[in-house]
Fold each of these.
Amino acid sequence: MQDPLELLDIPSLLSDEERAIQATVAAYLTDHVRPHIASWFEEGILPRELARELARELGKLGVLGMHLEGYGCAGTSALAYGLACLELEAVDSGIRSFVSVQGSLSMYSIWKYGSEEQKQEWLPRLAAGEAIGCFGLTEPDFGSNPSGMRTRAVRDGADWVLNGTKMWITNGGLADVATVWARTEEGIRGFLVPRGTPGFSTQDVKQKLSMRASVTSELVLQDVRLPESARLPLATSLRAPLTCLSEARFGIVFGAVGAARDSLQAALEYSGTRIQFDKPIAAFQLTQRKLASMTVQVSNSMLLALHLARLKEAGTLKPEQISVGKYNNVESAIAIARESRTILGANGISLEYSPLRHANNLESVLTYEGTSDIHLLSIGHALTGIASFR
């Protein structure tokens, strides 16, 4: 059985169109990205020119902002988008993050909160991969508590002047436009900062042990002057960036399944060919117990993801439900990646095999878009009505 999700016949729950979209994304990644991902991870890079080529090719496939309507976006179902994220993260979390930040943070912030002029200027280019976007919310001292952000935007005549620093920003060093969130006298507001704006600079984060095939950056704003037309007019509180994060977390729910499935597939294939004591290690009871347990876990995660997708399509998905999906599926995926590595034995530490690379990447996924602790508190708030972190 090549795909462990076939044990429960989960593919039968998808429409023909959804399966076709998933297969198209998987085929492209298999041919053009998977052969290079181990070397990119080892070198700690996502090559700039290749990243731009990748963006253009994903744009041609309709993957960028694919769940959005209009402005060159594909307008697919939430489930189709989730399945694309699954296949992207099956290759590498960094590649899925590249797409999630582009579509569910950069593009969504403009699509949801931007002016018509901003949408017309940026969304078609971002959807086509002709431009790359990023999303600047997290700061060096404020991750789980974005309401404490220190980046400020002050009115100066008809303009705004921004000062501050954002940290751990995926795509930051690549981005042609950054959605930057800042504190104003009226509250939290969003601004579009094009690359090349005086006072705006980026610095890539080096020496990462996780998300190595991904560009992670610091954004620095020093007296960055922007016109009023750069402000996202419909973003009027902290709720705006948090809503964008919910969009991105939905992709993670599916992406984590992809990393888990790929890790498990590597363990299944290896255990069938690795001979010890004159038989494949898949014949040993302890190995079969591991494989069976992981298959149940990844199947449960996939079924949860499918349920959340249907809720999203019905317009009833709640933030605490996304927290359930993000918490459960990422925790499960990292456990599966680590367990799969044990089946590979010493070979499991080699980049020839994916599980330990996935496990390293998932350490970041475990943290960003809300740590497991924060998501548990969100679930606890829904259950008790008491916000323990306020």
Amino acid sequence: MGSHAKAMREGSRDDVREETVVVGAGRTGMSFARYLSQRGEHYVVLDQAPNDQQREALQEIDDRAHLERISNERLIAAREILLSPGVPRSGHELQAAITSGVPVRGDLDVFAGACNTTTQVVAITGTNGKSTVTTLLGQMAAAAELSMKVGGNLGIPCLDLLDETSKGYILEVSSYQLESAGPFHADVATVLNLAPDHLDRYDSLEHYYETKASMYQRTNIAVVNRDTDYSFDLSGCGEVWSFGSRRPLDDQGFGLIGGALFQGENRLLDAHELKVRGIHNQLNVLAALAMGAALRLDMQVMLRAARRFEGLSHRCETVEERNGRVFINDSKATNPAATEAAVRGLVGQAKAICLLAGGIAKDADMRSMARSTAPHLTHVVAFGRDAEVIASAYRSEAVAVTQVDDLDQAVAAVADGSDVVLLSPGCASFDQFRNFEHRGDYFKALVHGLGGTDGD
């Protein structure tokens, strides 16, 4: 009886070995499900805390698919694991599966195997500015009548973009995706910048930087930020283009000279012709121009697209101007470097800036953010889970600070005399909101006097 039971278990294990296991039932996990269903493959989706909404979404994709809680037994018995980027490889269940020899692949890995080899692939990573540059470059390509799909970590997952008729793909790529990217390779790629972030996921800042920098080992043409103080390995790149805040070094370099954007010695446009604010956005435009030039897009077409570009929601977005005060939504600033860039971008345009900052700090050093931005601020309102960390950092810089519980109270606590109220949290949003978009929309509703919806 015991040997029969053992044989039954082994037979069952062999059956399960034929299954692909998708880990994570979020946006990328569902893109894995669609990809596998379209190919008639059998799979199961695992999540740490599966819910009814996820089950309904999965049933709409494939009524044969199942959503279960993550378990060691399922992972170790899998034929292969398709891992959503939001799930760390370092978890003990995944490490046990990896040790047992189960292949673990990410969406970029699967995309690389399915992508038509004749199409161009552009990859954009970095700590800040990825979504802006990805979107702008996509608009430049569209204006040049080059049919390229735009998405990745931004918007549509890369597997959902797959299209045999497309001439190429412009992908925003996160460090989490690069951890499991397998053979993924780009024709043109950039690391826009490097700044401390996600220190709750990586065991060191160097580990995070190395993960981002590995993008240059996956590309033919590199576009490099000359302002980034990091020694990138560009040995495998056939071409190197660059951008930065200072004078370009050569014709393959883009930069700023006296308030104008240049390629080499060629003046392209004046910064005031752009609709987006701040030097950080000027650098984003330069990065997009450099990547477009590497793709051989027509420069005049790209410049027209740059002049039309109005930026993205939740990125230094002007919400309302009322009684001489401007409210700006920069909810996308989920790390200190993004907040520093937003504040610097307003220097010279505002006399008195009130900063609303708070959320989940992700173990980031808020003292550095306070030191760099304090000279430009008249008031800081700290809110959310790590409000005390932020408030303490700014008090040490002798800035007037108000500490509150939530965003409603933060908006209500804005002091008189500020001509700019800047929501640039420097933190993740998940303590009180679904994501940074939810936080930004809630802020806009508060500013417009409409009231928000429940922040849970």
